[in-house]
Each structure stands twice: as structure tokens, then as C-alpha cells.
Amino acid sequence: MPCPGCNPAPASAAANLPAFAAAMEAEHAGAGVAFQIPDDPSILPAVYSFLMEHREWVVIERANGRLTLSRRDEDRTRPPGALMKALNFSRAAIAHAANGSPRVSLEVWEARMQACMICPNRFFDQCGLCGCYCAVKASWADQVCPDDPPRWSS
Ligand code: SF4
């Protein structure tokens, strides 16, 4: 649960997420922190930019008109183990090669990455469901997000 003392975050938090997150971390030094901001389409680009630069943060919930961001270890989805990750990536790479290695446009890659960045399954740079690197898999046109239902598709 997000810290009751820090929530809801003031409107200014959404306007300057890096500064607000840094202030929260300073206040909760060593303990990790989670906070909520309004889930407003107008601020999603700022959230995306923040998460691209600070991938240790993850959106753990979208509910009741709010996004809950966390940097606490216990809030992160754990990707599969090394063997399963290697198997999943090998499968994806073999299928990708068999399909002629198609790539997406920059616009499609950005849209897929936005979905990954605000996804609760993300673990730093990796998808917590399959263990593949989000930026790589999102660039392959024939791939589909492994969530059910998929958060992006080919
Ligand atoms: S690939 Fe899908 S499930 Fe994995 S992090 Fe991206 S959006 Fe989430």
C-alpha cells in the first residue's frame, strides 16, 4: 500500500515527477516508497518519460482514477528464472527470424513501450511475464505482449 502520509500526491507531483519522486525517496530513505497521482491522459506522456528514465519505478495499479507508482522491491513482479527466460527469448527469436525479422515503425515502438512502461508486470527493463527485454521485443513486429489479454499486439 502507498504511504498514507504521502497520498494523494499534490497536483504539482504530476507536473514534475522526477522532483517529487526524489523528495519522496529522501523522505523514505532506505524503506522504498509508493505514491498515487491522477490517472489523467494529459499527464501520461510525463509519466512515460519519467519511467523511461527511472525504470526502477513501476506502476503497480491503475484504479479509481489514480496511478500508483512504487519503487519498493516487494511491489515488483519477478520475471521467470534464467532457464525459462532463455527459453522464452529463444522461442521469440526463432519465430521472429522465421517471419523475416520484421521491425515496427518508431511510432508503433513508442506506443508499445508506453504500454510496457505503465504495465504492472514490468521488472526494470524486462517483462516480468516472459523475461524478455521490453525494448527488444517491442521492436519486433511479429511479437505479441504475453499478458492475457495482450497490452499490445502485432
Ligand atoms: S510485454 Fe506486456 S506484460 Fe510484458 S511488460 Fe510489456 S505490456 Fe507488460
Helix/strand order, N-terminal first: HHEHEEHHEEH
**Number of DSSP helical runs:** 6
Approximate shape: elongated
Biggest beta sheet attributes: 3 strands, antiparallel
Helix content: 25-40%
Total strands: 5
User: How many whole angstroms does the radius of gyration measure?
Assistant: 17 Å
Protein structure class: alpha+beta
- Report the uncertain regions: none
Ends apart, CA distance between termini? 35 Å
Kindly state the mean pLDDT as a whole number? 90
**Spatial sequence of strands, sheet with the most strands:** 1-3-2
Number of domains: 2
Proportion of beta-strand residues: 5-15%
Write the topology of this structure.
Blueprint: H1 11-15, H2 17-27, E1 34-38, H3 44-53, E2 58-63, E3 66-70, H4 82-98, H5 106-117, E4 122-123, E5 126-127, H6 134-139
Antiparallel strand pairs: 1-3, 2-3, 4-5
The structure holds iron/sulfur cluster.
Describe this structure in words.
It is elongated and about 55 Å long. The model has no long low-confidence stretch (mean pLDDT 90). Strand 2 and strand 3 form a beta hairpin. The protein folds into two domains: 72 residues, no CATH class; 58 residues, no CATH class. It has 154 residues and is α+β, with helices and mostly antiparallel strands. It is built from six helices and five strands. The longest helix has 17 residues. It binds iron/sulfur cluster (SF4). Iron/sulfur cluster binds next to helix 5.
